[in-house]
Structure formats: C-alpha cells, structure tokens
C-alpha cells in the first residue's frame, strides 16, 4: 500500500544566504590562520630586512647600515679599490684581516692587505686565530710583533672558535685565553674583541669574558638572540658572499650595535 510523501520544507533565500555567509567566514578564517603560520617566519626575519643584494650574491640584513668583510690569504690577491667601490647602495665600510695564528704563523698576505685596506679608506682590524694547545704568551707575542695599530683601526680581535681535543687543554682554556688577552691589553691599552660561535660562547665566553666586545658567527639564524646585548657588536652572517676585487667566496659581517658604539671598538 502506498503512503503519501510528507511535504518537505525547502530552505528560504535568507537561510541560503546565511549558510553561504557562514561558509565564507569559515573559509576566510582558515585562510588567515594558514597564512599566519606560513608567513610568521617571514615577519620575524623581516625585522632584519633581509634583502638579496645582487652584487654580493647573498641576502644581507639591511636593518643595519654598516657592512664589512673578513679576509685572509685564502682569499688570494685582493683588489682593494674594487672592494671599496663594489656597491653604491650597500657599501663595504670595514674589513678584518687575519694577521697571525698560534705561536709563529703569520698570514702571508697580511702586510699587503693591511696596507691597502687603509689606503682605500676602509676601517681595518687585525685578528689572531687562537690555538688552544699552544702557549698563550707566545701567541700574544706573535700578534704584537706583527700588528701595529693606528688611530681609527679596530681594537685587536681574538678568534676563539675551537676548544681543543683533550680534557687538559679544555680545562686550562679559560685561564690561557685570559693570559693571552691580558698581554694584548697591556701592550695596546684596549680591550680586544672576541670572535666566536654559539657553542664556544655558551661553553667558555659567557660568565668568563662578559666584559669584552663580542663578534658572533652564526649563519643559520635570521636574528641574533641569546647573547649579552650590550656587548654584541658584530655578526658574521655569511661565508659565501661575492665581491668585486675578490676571487671566490668571502665572509660577510654587519655591525649590529648603534652607530655611536662604533668608536668604542676602535683605537683612539
């Protein structure tokens, strides 16, 4: 026996419009959430204004305006005039040059690089690669016998990035680096800059050398965090930049403190 179908109520135009609006709002909400998740790292890093500079071949944090490089004999013969005039908009203002390593090694190109960098008007600095297992006093003498500083040069730099392979070396490392630094301070009359990486900073620098200007190498972070901000001066953010006048890759750095603090790390 057949039964009559009940009359089904069709949705009104108003109901359809309401459902459509709800659907659109949900879609919009989902879009906003997904966009925030995707774009959050961009917003965080954009505070540094990371911008690709074609003549450098890398992205550079343009939040900062004082940019520079560091070199050694590995960069071969450098045309310093081209380096100085490499970019009209984002110029190279300073350079750090390897002078010495250990107790007796002198960088073969230091003399020429040191002289020519000053000629073209770059703020120049000299660094010593500290060898943990070598005598700290002889290392200091090696640097002092090699580097004469003029007014306007950066203070000396201690490149402290390795800790040694055995426990005895590591146990005496803070004391020996202190000895090395004290000899530099006695000779030059200034506090040196300490160049280091995250690991060495956390293991040896923090709590032991907090009073010294800091130069950090960090190629992965989009923003430097976790360091004593009042002493943080320089950031080596790339090892594969390009520059007119230099064959191959070159390290890029930026001065991250306020401009008024630049004189604080220069010889008077």
Keywords summarizing the entry:
single chain, 268 residues, alpha/beta, TIM Barrel, eight-stranded mixed beta barrel, two-stranded antiparallel ribbon, 11 strands, 33% helix, 22% strand
Description:
It is a single chain. This protein is an alpha/beta fold and 268 residues long. It has 2 domains: 12-46; 48-265, TIM Barrel, CATH 3.20.20.80. It is built from 7 helices and 11 strands. It has helices at residues 13-46, 80-84, 110-119, 136-146, 167-171, 173-188, 198-205, and strands spanning 50-53, 58-61, 67-71, 92-101, 105-106, 123-129, 157-159, 193-197, 214-217, 232-241, 250-255. The strands form 2 sheets. The chain has an 8-stranded mixed barrel. It has a two-stranded antiparallel ribbon with strand order 1-2. Helix 4 runs parallel beside helix 6. The longest helix is centred in the first third of the chain and has 34 residues, at 13-46.
CATH topology category name of the largest domain: TIM Barrel
- Helical residue percent band: 25-40%
Alpha carbon gyration radius: 28 Å
Order of helices and strands: HEEEHEEHEHEHHEHEEE
Number of helices: 7
> Which structural category do the helix and sheet elements fall into?
alpha/beta
Task: Note the beta-strand portion.
Answer: 15-25%
Q: What would CATH call the architecture of the largest domain?
A: Alpha-Beta Barrel
Supply the CATH class of the largest domain: Alpha Beta
| Morphology call | globular
Largest sheet: 8 strands, mixed, barrel
Ends distance: 109 Å
């Amino acid at each position: 026996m057949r039964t009559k179908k009940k009359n089904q109520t069709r949705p009104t135009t108003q109901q359809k419009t309401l459902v459509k609006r709800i659907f659109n709002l949900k879609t919009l909400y989902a879009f906003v959430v997904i966009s925030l998740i995707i774009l959050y790292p961009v917003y965080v890093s954009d505070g540094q204004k990371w911008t690709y500079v074609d003549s450098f071949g890398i992205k550079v944090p343009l939040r900062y305006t004082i940019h520079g490089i560091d070199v050694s004999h590995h960069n071969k013969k450098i045309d310093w005039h081209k380096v100085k005039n490499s970019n009209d908009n984002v110029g190279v203002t300073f350079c750090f040059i390897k002078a010495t390593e250990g107790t007796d090694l002198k960088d073969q190109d230091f003399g020429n690089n040191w002289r020519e960098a000053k000629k073209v008007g770059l703020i120049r600095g000299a660094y010593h690669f500290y060898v943990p297992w070598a005598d700290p006093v002889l290392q200091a003498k090696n640097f002092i016998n090699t580097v004469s500083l003029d007014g306007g040069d950066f203070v000396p730099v201690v490149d402290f990035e390795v800790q040694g392979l055995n426990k005895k070396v590591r146990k005496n490392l803070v004391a020996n680096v202190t000895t090395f630094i004290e000899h530099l301070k006695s000779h030059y009359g200034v506090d040196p800059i300490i160049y280091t990486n995250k690991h060495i900073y956390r293991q040896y620098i923090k709590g032991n050398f907090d009073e010294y200007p800091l130069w950090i190498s960090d190629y992965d972070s989009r923003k430097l965090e976790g360091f004593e901000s009042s002493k943080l001066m320089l950031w080596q953010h790339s090892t594969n930049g390009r520059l007119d006048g230099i064959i191959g890759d070159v390290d890029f750095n930026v001065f991250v403190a306020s401009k008024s603090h630049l004189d604080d790390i220069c010889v008077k």
